[in-house]
Amino acid sequence: MKQKLMAILVVMTIITTPLLAQTTPAGGPTKIGYTNVDYIIGKLPEAKVMQNQLEVTKAQLDKAIGETYKEAQEKYEAYQKNGPSMTDVIRADKEKELQNLSTRIEEMRNNAQTSLQTKQQQLLEPILTKVNNAIQEVGKESGFLFILNMDAGQGTTPIILFAASEDNNATNLILRKLGVDPDKVEAAAPAATTPAAKPASAPATTPATAPKKK
User: Fold this and answer.
1) I want to staple 98 with a disulfide (CB 3.0 to 4.6 A). Which of 105, 137, 149, 210 is the partner?
2) Taking Cα atoms as reference points, which of 24, 19, 101 lies closest to residue 65?
3) What CA–CA distance (Å, rounded) separates 9 from 163?
4) Is residue 155 assigned to a domain?
């Protein structure tokens, strides 16, 4: 479940957590906190709801593409079987129909990917807003000058490369602010890279293009 969740939770509008302006006395200590936004999102009930909704949407898109693909495959097999006995006019009509189906499948694939990504962003936006508000509140209440995000995103070097202690790890404070008991989840997470979300898939191959008339 965790792997599936993290695979879907690519944060396309990921927060690089804003710096929290917190006035400190002149000459006073600078308190810099850090957290992992992806880890926090993964522990929220809303994230599990989002995962379920995305999986349902993806299954629906996959089914529609699969049905169209099956139709095209069946018609192509019939064309191969009956093509030699067809008249030129009927053969040309069948070839055009197969080409249209191939184009339709490609369009459905592209539209499915766009649709799934759009839905993901729509579902993720309020979650990101909620997390960001909690970070702002924790930063001010705990006297942090900054709170940095450990994970800069997929394929990038983490912003926090070394921390001498967990004293300034704000993750558990943020989880509590969001109503999540950190004692019931794993310890505050290290930086992690989130794999890219997979768009709605389609069958790997499309019917071969019908042979052209000679």
Assistant:
1) 210
2) 101
3) 26
4) yes
Helix, strand, or coil (residue 32):
strand
What's the domain count of the chain? 1
Q: Is residue 197 situated within a structural domain?
A: no
Decide: pTM greater than 0.70: no
> What is the domain range of residue 20?
11-184
Listed in sequence order, the residues at least 6 apart from 190 whose beta carbon sits closer than 8 Å to its beta carbon are 36, 150
Each residue's pLDDT, cut to its tens digit, for the chain (214 residues) gives 444 444 434 333 333 334 333 444 444 557 899 999 999 999 999 999 999 999 999 999 999 999 999 999 999 999 999 988 999 999 999 999 999 999 999 999 999 999 999 999 999 999 999 999 999 999 999 999 999 998 766 776 777 777 777 889 999 999 999 999 988 865 444 433 333 344 444 444 444 444 444 4
Domain annotation covers residue 118? yes
Displacement of CA 142 from its chain's centroid (Å): 32
212 three-class SS: coil
Q: Are 184 and 79 in contact (CB under 8 A)?
A: no
Both tokens assigned to 61 = 């898109």
Q: Other CB atoms closer than 10 Å to residue 185's CB: what's the count? A: 16
In a domain, residue 212? The reply is no
Q: Are 191 and 157 in contact (CB under 8 A)?
A: no
